[in-house]
Design a protein that fits this description.
four-stranded antiparallel sheet; 3 domains; Helix Hairpins; six-stranded mixed sheet; Adenine-n6-DNA-methyltransferase TaqI, Chain A, domain 2; 12 helices; alpha+beta; single chain
Length: about 425
């Protein structure tokens, strides 16, 4: 049990490498293959590295130290660079480095934070954090059990990335490169397509304002086929730690497009019914805070959450509601991920510190629109892939809940590893 385990301070369990950190300003960074880490994870990729191996990174500053919407401690492996917003350590002979990660994730660090406006975890205060220290073989077993759950979660996440890439590759083939039409124009059968679907495509092109397009197709604007609703402006007084309503914010978008489940802000203010977003809604990022404008124009399909009864789009977000008689959500999602659409939104962006997409920046975008039969065929296949992604998300939630339930009990010694394995909890979560 936990009373049998000594309690040691963090500096008694670690080797600290903070002196080797080196921040590089954005304009001075050269793009490359190596991750550049900050307080909450990877913030860029650069052409050099200062660490090589397995290290534990711990947020040094940022509001996330209080809200903990993303992990405050995370592993970095291989060759990478770290700025001065994350502490970097490894376990010494007393501690498994990943055990330290799990221990910090389970610990209440609020008493070690300083800063009224911007929370900060200094190296001195980090070193004072007290953690239970079971024998190394027990630490290793705890890491094995929790690591197995994390590995399953990572595999499901990677599978979803693959499924999304498949859907986007299909969209590009059908609606950007027009590969089925080109094949039929050459007297060939389109690849990876059944005869019924291939029959939906013409075998020739005609000229349009956007260049050659499949014969019989048309051109239109987003505003002709969908309603675009801007989200709600808010102030800090409208935010709270506990509420049944939350804002969908810029943090709800993955950098490459897609929806994140950790970007919500609990909210108590007013909003219009049109600004409520539901599971399955298509949203687009309308702002960004970096000159690279990496999020502007990025789309996401909202995933339902159990923590909040109502989700409301913030001012950073546009809700795109398609006229289903003309276009499908899955089609627009694929369209918004294309390089052409991303270039269009970048061209319609203005601002200095905070970048803004023009109010009509999405609506004025022109595209080649396929007939409804082709649209339906694509949407059916894309929806099947989307359902598989949703099933994986549901599994990830189950596994995450199990891990988060086991974590504090294993770290504290309230639960023995033998009890976990004999209970069948791990096999049920497989």
């Amino acid at each position: 049990m936990s009373f049998e385990w000594p309690v040691l301070t963090f500096d008694q369990l670690t080797i600290n490498y903070d002196k080797k950190r080196k921040p590089v300003r954005g304009p001075d960074r050269k793009s490359g293959p190596y991750p550049y880490y900050g307080a909450s994870g990877i913030v860029d990729y650069v052409d050099g590295y200062i660490f090589d191996g397995d290290y534990l990174l711990i947020a040094e500053d940022g509001e996330n130290l209080r809200t903990r919407q993303t992990p405050i401690a995370f592993m970095a492996s291989g060759k990478f660079w770290v700025n001065n917003h994350a502490h970097i350590v490894t376990g010494n002979e007393r501690a498994n480095t990943r055990y330290l990660q799990y221990s910090l994730l389970a610990a209440d660090i609020s008493g070690y934070l300083t800063g009224a406006v911007m929370p900060k975890l200094t190296q001195g205060n980090l070193n004072k954090i007290e953690l239970s220290c079971p024998p190394r073989h027990v630490q290793d077993e705890i890491v094995r059990v929790l690591g197995a759950l994390d590995a399953r979660i990572s595999l499901l996440r990677e599978t979803n990335v693959t499924l999304e890439a498949i859907a986007q590759a299909m969209f590009k083939s059908w609606f950007v490169d027009f590969e089925p039409v080109r094949a039929k124009a050459e007297g060939l059968e389109p690849e990876s397509m059944d005869a019924a679907t291939a029959a939906l495509f013409p075998n020739s092109f005609e000229e349009s304002d956007l260049g050659p397009m499949p014969s019989g197709w048309s051109t239109c604007r987003i505003a002709d086929v969908a309603e675009i609703v801007k989200g709600k402006s808010y102030s800090s007084k409208d935010l709270t730690d506990l509420h049944h309503t939350a804002l969908v914010t810029l943090k709800s978008f993955e950098r490459g497009g897609g929806f994140r489940l950790d970007g919500f802000k609990p909210y108590t203010g007013n909003y219009k019914s049109s600004q409520v977003v539901s599971s399955g809604d298509l949203i687009v990022a309308y702002t960004d805070v970096t000159q690279a404008a990496e999020l502007i124009g990025k789309p996401a399909i909202v995933v339902g959450v159990e923590e909040y009864q109502t989700l409301v789009a913030s001012l950073d977000v546009g809700i795109v509601r398609p006229d289903v008689t003309k276009v499908s959500r899955q089609y627009l999602y694929g369209l918004f991920k294309t390089e052409t659409f991303q270039s269009h939104t970048f061209a319609h962006t203005s601002g200095t510190t905070v970048l803004h997409l023009a109010k009509d920046g999405v609506g004025v975008y022109q595209f080649v629109c396929p007939p409804s039969e082709v649209m339906k065929a694509f949407s059916s296949l894309a929806e099947t892939l989307s359902e598989r992604r949703q099933n994986n998300i549901d599994q990830m939630r189950t596994l995450t809940h199990l891990r988060d339930t086991l974590l504090p009990r294993l770290i504290s010694g309230q639960l023995h590893l033998s009890e976990v394995e004999n209970s069948g909890m791990l096999s049920e979560a497989s």
